[in-house]
């Protein structure tokens, strides 16, 4: 059974991202995957992002030294086969709540600057991206940046871009959206 971890970066409990994530999860579970959803906005953060202390690089453990909820999320990421980042587009980037987790992923990579190599438990996993926006400008640039992380990490990558989602709660008005989410979930081969 595939383990799917979804990181919902929206601060809105019942907004567009929550709806897209719910439809995605329904399909993933129907395909036999185990699904865990974490809302970034509900986490307790002891630091306002990665503090660049680099303590993680001095230890063999894939662990952030900041002892808060993100530490647990990073553990869950290592257990998952598929990690889905779900976020609204905020000023042509992911939400700040999601970025607080992403930067802490620094601890999941151990770099050897002498050989210019790294080891990471992210290698071989699949990364998904669910991204919605009010209009249709700027989604591609965010997709590109997530794809760069996936390529760098030697992860497979698939994305679902949802332009014209308008305001929180409006996404269900997009014709055929549920079918598109279903197809996206199926493309990740979650069973
Ligand atoms: C702070 C903020 C910044 C936003 N920036 C953009 C943007 O740059 N481009 C855009 O098309 N929509 C933007 N939006 C709209 C959201 O991306 C869009 O409504 C999204 O589907 C909301 O998802 P949610 O309901 O899960 O939060 C922004 C909304 C907020 C609150």
Any idea what the CATH superfamily is called? Flavodoxin domain
Q: Which molecules other than protein and nucleic acid are bound?
A: flavin mononucleotide
> What is the CATH topology descriptor?
Rossmann fold
* Count of separate structural domains: 1
Q: What is the strand content?
A: 15-25%
Write down the Rg: 16 Å
Structural class: alpha/beta
CATH architecture: 3-Layer(aba) Sandwich
Multimeric status of the protein: single chain
Bulk shape: globular
Proportion of helical residues = 25-40%
Please report the first level of CATH classification, the CATH class.
Alpha Beta
Low-pLDDT segments, ≥5 res: none
Protein architecture, described:
The protein has 191 residues and is an alpha/beta fold. The protein has one domain: Flavodoxin domain (Rossmann fold, 3-Layer(aba) Sandwich), CATH 3.40.50.360. It is 31% helix and 20% strand. The strands form 2 sheets. It has a 5-stranded parallel sheet, with helices on both faces. The structure holds flavin mononucleotide. The site of flavin mononucleotide (FMN) has 18 residues, from helix 1.
Quick rundown:
The chain is of the alpha/beta class and about 190 residues long. The chain is about 30% helix and about 20% strand. The N and C termini lie close together (about 5 Å).
């Amino acid at each position: 059974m595939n383990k799917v971890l979804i990181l919902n970066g929206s601060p809105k409990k019942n907004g567009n991202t929550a709806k897209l994530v719910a439809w995605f999860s329904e399909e993933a579970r129907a395909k036999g995957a185990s699904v865990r959803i974490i809302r970034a906005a509900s986490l307790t953060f002891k630091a306002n992002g990665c503090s660049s202390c680099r303590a993680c690089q001095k230890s063999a453990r894939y662990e952030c030294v900041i002892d808060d909820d993100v530490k647990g999320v990073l553990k869950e990421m290592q257990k998952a086969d598929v990690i889905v980042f779900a976020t609204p587009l905020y000023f042509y980037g992911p939400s700040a709540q999601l970025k607080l987790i992403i930067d802490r992923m620094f601890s999941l990579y151990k770099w050897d600057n002498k050989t210019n190599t790294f080891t990471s438990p992210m290698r071989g996993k699949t990364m998904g991206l669910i991204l919605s926006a009010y209009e249709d400008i700027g989604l591609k640039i965010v997709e590109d940046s997530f794809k760069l992380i996936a390529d760098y990490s030697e992860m497979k990558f698939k994305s679902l871009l949802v332009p014209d989602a308008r305001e929180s709660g409006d996404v269900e008005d997009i014709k055929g959206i549920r079918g598109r989410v279903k197809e996206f979930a199926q493309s990740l081969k979650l069973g």
